[in-house]
Amino acid sequence: xxxxxxxxxxxxxxxxxxxxxxxxxxxxxxxxxxxxxxxxxxxxxxxxxxxxxxxxxxxxxxxxxxxxxxxxxxxxxxxxxxxxxxxxxxxxxxxxxxxxxxxxxxxxxxxxxxxxxxxxxxxxxxxxxxxxxxxxxxxxxxxxxxxxxxxxxxxxxxxxxxxxxxxxxxxxxxxxxxxxxxxxxxxxxxxxxxxxxxxxxxxxxxxxxxxxxxxxxxxxxxxxxxxxxxxxxxxxxxxxxxxxxxxxxxxxxxxxx
Length: 257
Prior knowledge:
Elements: E1 3-8, H1 11-22, E2 28-33, H2 38-49, H3 51-70, H4 73-82, E3 95-98, H5 104-113, E4 117-121, H6 128-131, E5 138-142, E6 150-151, H7 154-160, E7 168-173, E8 183-188, H8 200-217, E9 239-240, H9 245-253
Parallel strand pairs: 1-2, 1-4, 2-3, 4-5, 6-9
Antiparallel strand pairs: 5-7, 7-8
C-alpha cells in the first residue's frame, strides 16, 4: 500500500513513523507541517474563546504538564515497552516539510505520489482543496471517542466528565468538520491510576495501533463499504480545548490528574 503521512512534528508522529516501519510499511511519503506560530494561534483562540479562558489555558500549559512529566517518565516508558513503541527519530524516512498542510505544495505532492490512503496525525484542520485534491481517503487517528469528544484531550475530558466508558481513541475518515467524519473504529481503554494528563494521549495512541494495523492491511480498503457516510443519529458533541488552570484543579480535587 502506498501511504502518505500528513503530520505535525512531535513524539506521537515519531512513534507512528517508527511503528509503520516496524510493520513493514516502507512505501511512505511523509509530509510534516511546521508548527503554527504562537501569535497566530493565540489570536484565533482569543477570538473564539475569550481572554479569560485563553489566559487560564496558558497558565495551565506553562505549569502543569511540565510538573507532571517529572513524575511520569517511568509510566511513559512502561507504556512504550508494553506496546513495543519507539520515539527515536525515524531513520531513512523521506520527510518533506511544508508551512501548512493546506499549502498548494501539499496538494502538488499528493497528486504526484497518488497514495492509496492518507494517514493524518496532529495537523491543523485540513481544508477542502487538499481533501479533494486526490480520490484517496484521508484517515485520522484521534485521541478521543468521536463524535462526543472532538478537538483535543478527549480522554482527559471524558474522565473529567465522569464518562470513563468514553476514554479511548477513534480512527475515522476526515471530512470538512472537526473530527466529524465517518467512524472506522472506536478503541476503548481504561487508564491506570499511574496515568495523568501527559500520559493519557500516549496510552490512547498505543492502544489504537492494533486497530490501525487492520485498516492498513486491507489493501482493497473494503472497510470503506462498512462505514455509514451519513451523519449518525446521535448528538455531535462539543469541541474540546485545553483545560484552564481552574478546570484542571477542579478535576484534580476529584482525582483526575
